[in-house]
Specification:
The chain has 396 residues and is an all-alpha fold. The protein is built from 16 helices and no strands.
Length: 396
């Protein structure tokens, strides 16, 4: 097996990337033109350097360009895509996130102060806490919104050394009275979010269980553990799911019946398993995680999950979590959640790209793994024709 690819294979790989990039940009630009235009004309409109278009023409129809020219074209193309697309998309994403966090912070401020005045983003209109919540679910994409809510409710802001989210109050007592006060503050927001985003309850429970386990393993914050335990039990209780039913619009306009005292007391007990399963809460997997953790609060929550599951309890139902959960900073360093790259400079280098073309079958003579088929870049010749040829596929 060969340890490195030939110069021809490297040139073929670069050529294909440049041809497909230029053709893709030109095809997209042609969609907005009613009259047919050449690739060069279309690329000039979108600001792509003309010499890259010429190089693409040479690679497709005439002579395969030299490796230095192809490397220069690849660097220029990466810079173009970064300036025109990736950086713009990242800026839009940051702006949306800032707007979303401002709405949540305005909700928190208006709830605590009772002031309905909009603030933080220069609004001149009067907004109630419920209106802030409704604007949040209407304007923020759900995939971005759930991650923002995890930071707001559970994890806390990155500049917050305590690592406590909004569900863990700093001043309220660690008692039923303290939990009731914080619950009354954020229940309207959570109710609106769950009504619009069906997976919110399951997502928040998983985030709180993960935070409980991580907190027990690190700094053992007693206040955070107390309130997260109470919130998790609340989101598993009949009271929460009863409020979801009451929050739905009653078409007949009937008033909800007032609960008796025994019924009110039973609301604190866990909801029935079919209801929790219908919310896509991974009960067995969460029970496994809590049992494996061995912490005080984790053990309590494991007992709660086992009680709810009953005969439906299946040990090791979920995946065994052996690796430590990555922090937000570590995850963002590896890959942006939406595949966006902030700057072209953090992309894989051209040297690394070329190294990735090395034959993966090195060391396979020991039968350490399955052999792979030869890649298309491993052809031995280049054949040009009038209409162009896909690099790597000869006409023989």
């Amino acid at each position: 097996a060969r340890a490195a690819v030939s110069t021809m294979q490297t040139r073929l790989s670069y050529s294909t990337a440049i041809i497909r990039s230029v053709n893709g940009l030109a095809d997209e630009a042609q969609r907005f033109n009613y009259e047919f235009k050449s690739v060069a004309s279309l690329c000039s409109v979108i600001g792509l350097p003309g010499w890259i278009v010429d190089l693409r023409h040479d690679a497709s129809h005439t002579v395969l360009p030299s490796l230095p020219c192809l490397r220069m074209a690849a660097k220029t193309m990466l810079g173009y895509l970064g300036d025109k697309y990736w950086n713009v998309m990242t800026a839009m994403r940051v702006a949306k996130k800032d707007r979303a966090m401002a709405l949540l912070n305005n909700y928190r401020t208006s709830i605590k102060t009772g002031d309905n005045l909009g603030g933080g983003m220069g609004e001149s209109t009067l907004l109630t806490p419920v209106e802030y919540a409704q604007e949040f679910v209407e304007t923020v994409p759900i995939d971005m919104g759930l991650q923002i809510l995890a930071e707001f409710f559970v994890l806390g802001a990155r500049d917050n050394p305590s690592g406590r989210g909004a569900l863990v109050p700093q001043m309220l007592p660690m008692s039923q009275e303290g939990f009731s006060k914080i619950k009354n503050q954020y229940h309207p927001l959570m109710l609106i979010i769950q009504t619009c985003w069906k997976g919110f309850t399951s997502f928040l429970i998983v985030e709180m269980i993960d935070s409980i386990i991580d907190t027990e393993a690190s700094k053992n914050d007693e206040r955070k553990l107390y309130f997260l335990e109470r919130w998790t039990k609340y989101l598993l209780s009949k009271e929460w799911y009863s409020s979801l039913d009451k929050g739905k619009t009653n078409v007949n306009g009937k008033k909800s019946r007032k609960c008796s005292q025994p019924e009110a007391l039973s609301m604190f007990s866990p909801a029935q398993l079919p209801i929790l399963v219908s919310m896509n809460i991974p009960m067995n997997a969460l029970c496994d995680r809590c049992a494996a953790s061995g912490g005080t609060v984790s053990s309590k929550m494991s007992a709660v999950f086992e009680m709810i599951l009953g005969k439906k309890r299946v040990e090791e139902y979920g995946l065994c979590m052996t690796e430590k959960k990555k922090t937000i900073e570590e995850a963002e360093e590896e890959c942006d959640a939406f595949g966006l790259v902030t700057t072209p400079s953090i992309l894989i280098s051209l040297k690394d790209m070329e190294e990735s073309l090395k034959d993966d079958n090195v060391g396979m003579e020991n039968n350490s793994g399955p052999k792979r088929k030869r890649g298309w870049v491993e052809c031995e010749s280049w054949d040009a024709c009038a209409i162009g040829t896909l690099p790597g596929y000869s006409l023989k």
